[in-house]
Amino acid sequence: MRNWIRRRRAEREATCAEVAQVLQSYLDGHVDDLTARRVSRHLEHCRRCGLEAETYQAIKDALARRGREVDAQTLERLRAFGTRLAEEGRAGEADSPA
Amino acid sequence: MPEIDVLLRVARTLVPRPADAEDLVQDTLIRAYRSIESFDGSHPRAWLLTIMRNAQINRTRRRRPELLDDPDAALEQSDEQDEHRHSPEAVVVGASFDAVVVDALDALPDRFRQVVELIDVDGLTYAEAAEAIGAPVGTVMSRLHRARTRIRNRLAAAGLAPRSGTR
Ligand SMILES: [Zn+2]
């Protein structure tokens, strides 16, 4: 019984202040399962925290859309460079006496 | 090396000039092949990011002595001037959400901007970003969260996000 009460308490949904503390980590998927459950239960009905979560998610989405375009030619040159290094490495091994 | 595109994206985040970023990746690859014997095979990306971090330290040391810097305090210090530069009436009416986000990102001090870019643009995890900048994960988190809060406040000033409510 006592365990059950303790568990209920631990599972109690997060307060607004707790959500404010962990919101960004929550959106990044960097909180433990229990915290994630407690936060999402709170976000289901609290308008203020819900808006806050939407705003931060929208910021993350905007940044992800930005993406970083890497220059295709640069990438090609670097891939070729990497391949050359790998080949030289193998050649070096073959040359060296076992 | 399957991670070359990740290395290049991260290098572009860490180094302002594209040509320097390419050099940095080359350096990183050379060092990686040199020490590949001692690599245990787990977390290749984190391993490469650490090598890149060390290569970069070496390059900046060669070029100029590291400036004395701490301080993540810089973000708060610049807050006030910033409020003036970007008072609501200075914000372009109808500025799109994405444009304000990008402006706010570019206005951040480098160490904050880099962390946001590494994680939200380049897609690194907190731990990988920590390897890339050579700082503890806690520092990465605190910079990231404060930087996003700044972006959020800019959006609120532009009328594109709710006014700060949660305390
Ligand atoms: Zn709430």
Oligomer class: heterodimer
In CATH, the homologous superfamily of the largest domain in chain B goes by the name Winged helix-like DNA-binding domain superfamily/Winged helix DNA-binding domain
From N to C, what is the helix and strand string of chain A? HHHHH
Low-pLDDT segments, ≥5 res of chain B: 80-94
Radius of gyration of chain B: 18 Å
Mean pLDDT of chain A: 86
User: How big a fraction of the residues of chain B is strand?
Assistant: under 5%
**Which structural category do the helix and sheet elements of chain B fall into?**
mainly alpha
Which cofactors or ions or other ligands sit in this model? Answer: zinc ion
- Domain count of chain B: the total is 2
Describe the structure.
The complex is a heterodimer of chains A (98) and B (167). Chain A is an all-alpha fold and 98 residues long. Chain A has one domain. Chain A has helices at residues 2-11, 16-27, 33-43, 47-66, 72-95. The radius of gyration of chain A is 25 Å and the shape is elongated. Chain A starts with a helix and ends with a helix. Chain B has 2 domains: 4-66, RNA polymerase sigma factor, region 2, helix turn helix motif (Rna Polymerase Sigma Factor, Chain: A, Orthogonal Bundle), CATH 1.10.1740; 70-157, Arc Repressor Mutant, subunit A (Orthogonal Bundle), CATH 1.10.10.10. Chain B contains 8 helices and no strands. The termini of chain B are far apart. In chain B, helix 1 packs parallel to helix 3. Chain B is mainly α and 167 residues long. Classes of the chains: A mainly alpha (98), B mainly alpha (167). At the A-B interface, helix 2, helix 4 and helix 5 of A face helix 1, helix 2, helix 5, helix 6 and helix 8 of B. Zinc ion binds next to helix 2 and helix 4 of chain A.
